[in-house]
Amino acid sequence: MQAVTVIFPTLARQGRAPFLQRAIASVLSQEGVRAVPLVVINGDERDPEVVRQLNADPRIRVTSVPERGIPEALRAGRDLVDTPWFSRLDDDDLMLPGALALRVSALESQPGLEAVVTNGYRRDAAGDTLHVTNAAEVQRDPLTALLTSNWLLPGSWLCRTTSIGSDVFRGAPHSLECTYLAVQLASRGRMVFLEQPTVVWHTDIPASESKSREWHLGEADALATILELDLPEDFREGIRRKIAPACHSAASRFLAEGSPAQAWRWHLRSLKEPGGWQYLLYTRYVLAALARRRSA
After folding, report:
1. For labeling, which of 47, 173, 174, 254 is most exposed (least CB within 10 Å)?
2. Rounded distance, CA 73 to CA 217, Å?
3. What pLDDT score was predicted for residue 112?
4. How confident is the model at residue 293, as a pLDDT?
């Protein structure tokens, strides 16, 4: 039976412990493979009781890194992988039955492939929504499809251990880390996308990293990090055009928070990026806020 390591980046907070246990259970219940949960506790916010419970379960491997961040946790986890295949699942998501067996089968049948990515569901209070509705486009040209939307959910992929090392996570940004990985896998040209959903990504769990202020404000720099990769020029141009909206979004957030100086800095950056001219009229709002601040 094939062994698969599933890396769980987590802060090990008490409030998220029930979600983490649920996520681990969805991996341990996988049939047709021997699933090995590898929990990587990152940062210094861990709850001692959560850590104790994790270490008390012999089915789970547990390690920790002092730095907070999903890229750091994935890199540390990948360095410990000793199985032929590895994947990831967030501490508040679910792996659907048969997910790992399906992914392993896809890579076993095509030895030249390094990774497989599947579809998934986005779940909120209203129910489940299929994440990728244009599967044929992703299958035809996964890199170009990324310019429309990111098709890689945190727990939707599986990699061949002999092909993908921890270097694929080195330099990854804290924001858009899934997009960064998707670009890495797609640009290598040795991955396959499967239309069948194998994961449930919860969009309304409290304290999710992707909803944090830091994640939002880090989008522009994350896009700049993606541009440091060796990529086709047409794709690079598409990524460049996403930076201005991300900078404008950050400017709008700072202005709403009552920080016009920070808003001005991000607004100027948006104007310098391709397509940034569309935000020129926003200048008057930021200048008006700066004037009010000086006269207060």
Report:
1. 47
2. 21
3. 93
4. 84
| 222: CB partners within 8 A, 6+ apart | 173, 174, 175, 176, 177, 179, 180
Confidence (pLDDT) at 296: 67
pLDDT confidence of residue 212: 74
And the tokens for 184? 């890495």
Largest distance between two CA atoms of the chain: 71
Which residues of the chain register pLDDT less than 50?
none
Among candidate residues 86, 80, 53, the one with its CA nearest the CA of residue 64: 80
The predicted structure's pLDDT at residue 295 = 83
Distance CA 139, CA 14 (A): 40
Q: How many CB atoms lie within 10 A of CB 144?
A: 15
Residues contacting 182, CB < 8 A, separation 6+: 117, 142, 146, 150, 151, 152
Which residue matches tokens 């720099």?
221
Query: What is the C-alpha to C-alpha distance for residues 45 and 206, in angstroms, rounded to an integer?
Result: 16
pLDDT at position 215: 74
